């Protein structure tokens, strides 16, 4: 098993207030890894990673990295500006190198707006056309579904949401982040299983592109230079010790 199979890197994307930070906390078994807020205001303009050691039903461990993002796709805010978009994209690249296993498009029961359908275009624009194969629509506020309504019935009430789910290969998941303990754990385990299944359908691999490969090459080059410097420094120190030893000693 390669180390990449022991890792799962997930990015949360969606409008502010849709439940990104809450879903991130649920996945990380934490209440405070990310700051969730009632106000619907975007708190930070930076991405943030969180980590959790996940054990699956077979006892296999993997490091789950979740990257929370600011409201990438908020309308009418400065965040949609090209420069900010680029900055957030570069943070996502840095935090998920060498690639992303899953983009979770977070939407919310009762809050879905038709413009959110454009999220897939943003993802294509930033990450490339194939990134869509790594997307799952996660609908938070499952507790707010109407009495007797299931998730698919809810999805079918909005043609735009149905289109979004279809664009994501019908991969969708409902979650209530207000749950806690075992019921919440069952939910997050199900979500991780869906991600695992998607990874298997994507030839067991994560999404990567030229930008990731450039960052990875840069990292490898920096690592090589650091090791080379350490080697040089060690050699210089050893030479200095030898130089300090009286010559007569070295003869014997
Ligand atoms: N009822 C309910 N509220 C939720 C759920 N998920 C998130 N929230 C609430 O929705 C609000 C916005 O959530 P937050 O995670 O900050 O959204 P973000 O802006 O996308 O990061 C907070 O008050 C959360 O407590 C959910 O599944 N059910
Ligand atoms: Mg948030």
TrEMBL record:
One Gene Ontology term of the molecular function aspect: GTP binding
Chain ranges of the AIG1-type G domain: 5-216
InterPro entries documented for this protein: G_AIG1 (IPR006703), GIMA/IAN/Toc (IPR045058), P-loop_NTPase (IPR027417)
Keywords, alphabetical: GTP-binding, Nucleotide-binding
Record-annotated membrane-spanning stretches: none
Region (Disordered): 218-238
Similarity comment: family membership: Belongs to the TRAFAC class TrmE-Era-EngA-EngB-Septin-like GTPase superfamily. AIG1/Toc34/Toc159-like paraseptin GTPase family. IAN subfamily.
Protein name per the record: AIG1-type G domain-containing protein
């Amino acid at each position: 098993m390669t180390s990449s199979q022991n890792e799962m890197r997930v990015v949360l994307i969606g409008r502010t207030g849709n439940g990104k930070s809450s879903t991130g906390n649920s996945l990380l078994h934490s209440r405070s890894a990310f700051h969730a807020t009632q106000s619907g205001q975007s708190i930070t303009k930076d991405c943030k990673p969180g980590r959790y050691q996940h054990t699956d039903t077979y006892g296999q461990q993997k490091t789950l990295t979740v990257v929370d993002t600011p409201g990438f796709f908020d309308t009418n805010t400065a965040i949609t500006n090209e420069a900010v978009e680029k900055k957030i994209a570069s943070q996502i690249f840095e935090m998920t190198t060498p690639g992303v296993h899953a983009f979770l498009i977070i939407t919310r029961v009762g809050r879905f707006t038709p413009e959110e359908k454009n999220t897939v275009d943003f993802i294509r624009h930033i990450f490339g056309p194939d990134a869509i194969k790594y997307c799952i629509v996660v609908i938070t506020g499952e507790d707010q579904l109407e009495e007797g309504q299931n998730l698919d019935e809810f999805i079918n009430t909005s043609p735009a949401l149905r289109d979004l789910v279809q664009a994501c290969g019908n991969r969708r998941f409902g979650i209530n982040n207000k749950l806690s303990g075992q019921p919440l754990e069952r939910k997050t385990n199900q979500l991780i299983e869906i991600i695992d299944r998607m990874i298997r359908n994507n030839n067991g691999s994560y999404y990567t592109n030229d930008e990731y490969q450039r960052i990875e090459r840069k990292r490898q080059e920096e690592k090589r230079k650091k090791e080379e410097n350490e080697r040089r420094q060690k050699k210089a120190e050893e030479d200095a010790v030898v130089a300090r030893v009286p010559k007569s000693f070295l003869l014997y």
